[in-house]
Every structure is written in C-alpha cells, then in structure tokens.
C-alpha cells in the first residue's frame, strides 16, 4: 500500500494543556480508569459473595494495591527487567511521568502485596488474588490504550491495511539516518525545525510535516491495540465468566490469569517491536512470560489439590444470579 493510505499517528498525549509541557495526560487517566473499574467490580464481587474481602475494605485495598503493587512493582520491574542503566541515576527511577512501566513487574508487585494484605487482615490470599485478577485485565486494557495514544511500544513493520505510521520511530537510536532525513526535509519547510523533537512537535500544527513523515516512516502493526484486546478485553471476559458462572476453588482464577496473560503476551510480542535486547529467540516479554505460565500452572494444581472456596459460597451454593 502507498504510505498515504496508512494512518499517521498524531494523537496528543495530553487531555488538555495548561502550558506547552504541563497538563493532565491520557497515561495518567488510564490509571484513574483502572482504579475506578477495579473498585467498582471488586465491590460487586464482594457484595455477591465471590470475594471474602468486605465491601468497606475494597477502596483501601485497591488504593494500596495500585500504589505498591502496580506503580512500585511496575516501575521496579521496568528498571530491573529492561533498563538496568537507570540504577546509575536513581533519581530517574522516580520519574514515572516520563513513562516506563513493566506489566510483569506490576504482576509480581501485586502478588507480593496481596500476600502481605491477606496476612495482615487474616483472609485467604488466593481468594483475594482471584478477585483482583478478575479485574486486573481492565487495567491492562486502559494501559495499552494509553500506550497507543502516546505512540509508544509500537509494532513491527507490516503491510496490512490497518498498519500505522508512528513518528516516535525517529527517536530510536538505530534510526538516526531516518531522523536526519526527516529534519532535513522539515527544515526546508520551516527553518526552525532543526532537530527531531521539533519536527514531531510541528506535526501537531503544520500539515506539510505530515507529508514529509509519510514518505519516511515505516508502516507498523498497532501492537498496543492487539495487546489491549487480548490481554485486556478477551482475558477479562474469560476470567469474568469463570468467576461468575463456574464454581472454582480459590487460586484457580489467579492461575488462569497468570497463564492467560502470559500466553496472550507471547502471541502479541510476535507483532511488537522488541524494546530491549532479545534473550535467545525470545523477546524479553516472551521470556519473562514463560515463568508466568509455570507459576500459573502451579497455582491451579495447588488449588485443585487442596480446594477451598469463597466463605459465602463454601457450602456448595450456586453462584448468585444477576438479580441477587
């Protein structure tokens, strides 16, 4: 296909701008939506007996899970799994607003936090984890949508009709020649466009830059959307069905989440541009996902060997109907 037929990514990462660099971002909104949806659905599950946690405890649990599980775990996971060089500048680790979160790190953080919280409040760790895992894919969905809006974590080169041109491709270290070509052509249109950042900023206001970049950028898979649909929507529907329509012992849903997320992530990574060095034939995301599959299988086996059920459903009651 001709490059003119592809969508050129030109979404503003800001919801609105107070100044050139200040304003609420869609990336932050993704966390807000994840928090709200997580709170709402866990409250629903608690009210109907699927979750042992009391409805009045849900907001406290979700808040701390977001801070210590998702934010801290996700950030540290990004540092240790993908960007060890950040340890040379510890201050950079706290600059979350600049991006850089690891889903695998967030999952590990949530596993550890739920263990701590369940011990502190004397409730079933696996039941708490099961219900958190049911709602977690919605957070993944919002996060991947935010990745797409930011034009980051894009896919590999593609010739499908829905391929997207991502301008941030010019910021990659391996694309300096491509970036210089874009600067040379853009500066001929506007002499102030002397670097890549200026060219990308001008894309918002100068339609001529659109034509320049279309002739340079590589059509790519919108892998963020693939991940949003697989890790987010499809995984949520599977887990919600199992939670509300099948009577399973505590721990099974946690295992399904870990294994399901890992498998969907490994599939999506086939279309995603590797954002770190490969580990053998695997991307970093695929390699780390192997361990999640093993951990998920262990959760399911353990749950089957020593079955325990949500307190309110332990007597063998059928899952409550929608009208209950």
Question: What can you tell me about this protein's structure?
Answer:
By secondary structure, the protein is mainly α. The protein folds into two domains: 7-158 and 220-313, no CATH class; 167-216, no CATH class. The chain has eleven helices and three strands. The protein has helices at 26-47, 58-81, 90-93, 103-121, 125-150, 176-189, 196-202, 207-214, 223-245, 252-268, 284-305, and strands at residues 7-8, 164-165, 219-220. It has a three-stranded mixed beta sheet with strand order 1-2-3, with helices on one face. Helix 1 packs across helix 2, helix 5 (125-150) runs parallel beside helix 10 (252-268) and helix 10 (252-268) runs antiparallel to helix 11 (284-305). It is elongated. The protein starts with 6 loop residues before the first strand and ends in a 19-residue tail after the last helix. The model has no long low-confidence stretch (mean pLDDT 89).
Number of helices: 11
Q: What's the number of structural domains?
A: 2
**Share of residues in strands:** under 5%
The beta-strand count equals: 3
Helical residue percent band: 55-70%
Summarize the helix and strand pattern as letters.
EHHHHHEHHHEHHH
Radius of gyration, rounded?
A: 22 Å
Distance between the termini: 54 Å
Question: Which helices and strands occur, and which strands form pairs?
Answer:
Elements: E1 7-8, H1 26-47, H2 58-81, H3 90-93, H4 103-121, H5 125-150, E2 164-165, H6 176-189, H7 196-202, H8 207-214, E3 219-220, H9 223-245, H10 252-268, H11 284-305
Parallel strand pairs: 1-2
Antiparallel strand pairs: 2-3
Helix pairs in contact: 1-2, 1-5, 2-4, 4-5, 5-9, 5-10, 6-8, 9-10, 10-11
């Amino acid at each position: 296909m001709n490059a003119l037929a592809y969508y050129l990514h030109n979404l503003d990462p800001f919801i609105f701008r107070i100044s050139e660099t200040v304003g609420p971002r869609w990336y932050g909104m993704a966390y807000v939506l994840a928090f709200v949806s997580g709170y709402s659905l866990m409250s629903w599950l608690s009210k109907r007996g699927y979750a042992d946690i009391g409805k009045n405890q849900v907001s406290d649990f979700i808040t701390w899970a977001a801070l210590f599980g998702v934010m801290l775990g996700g950030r540290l996971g990004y540092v240790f799994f993908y960007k060890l060089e950040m340890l040379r500048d510890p201050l950079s680790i706290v600059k979350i607003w600049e991006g850089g979160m690891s889903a695998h790190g967030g999952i590990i953080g949530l596993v550890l936090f739920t263990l701590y919280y369940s011990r502190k409040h004397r409730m079933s760790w696996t039941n708490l984890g099961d219900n958190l895992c049911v709602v977690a894919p919605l957070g993944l969905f919002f996060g991947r949508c935010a990745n797409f809006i930011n034009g980051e974590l894009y896919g590999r080169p593609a010739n499908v009709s829905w391929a997207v041109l991502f301008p941030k491709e010019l910021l990659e270290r391996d694309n300096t020649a491509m970036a210089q070509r874009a600067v040379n052509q853009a500066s001929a249109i506007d002499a102030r466009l002397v670097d890549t950042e200026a060219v990308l900023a001008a894309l918002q206001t100068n339609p001529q830059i659109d034509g320049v970049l279309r002739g340079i950028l590589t059509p790519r898979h919108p892998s963020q959307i693939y991940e949003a649909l697989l890790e987010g929507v499809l995984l949520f529907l599977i887990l919600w069905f199992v939670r509300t329509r099948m009577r399973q012992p505590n721990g099974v849903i946690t295992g399904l989440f870990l294994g399901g997320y890992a498998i969907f992530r490994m599939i999506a990574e086939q279309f995603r541009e590797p954002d770190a060095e490969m580990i053998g034939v695997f991307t970093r995301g695929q390699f780390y996902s192997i361990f999640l599959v093993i951990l998920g299988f262990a959760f399911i086996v353990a749950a089957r060997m020593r079955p325990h059920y949500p307190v309110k459903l332990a007597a063998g009651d059928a899952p409550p109907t929608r009208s209950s």
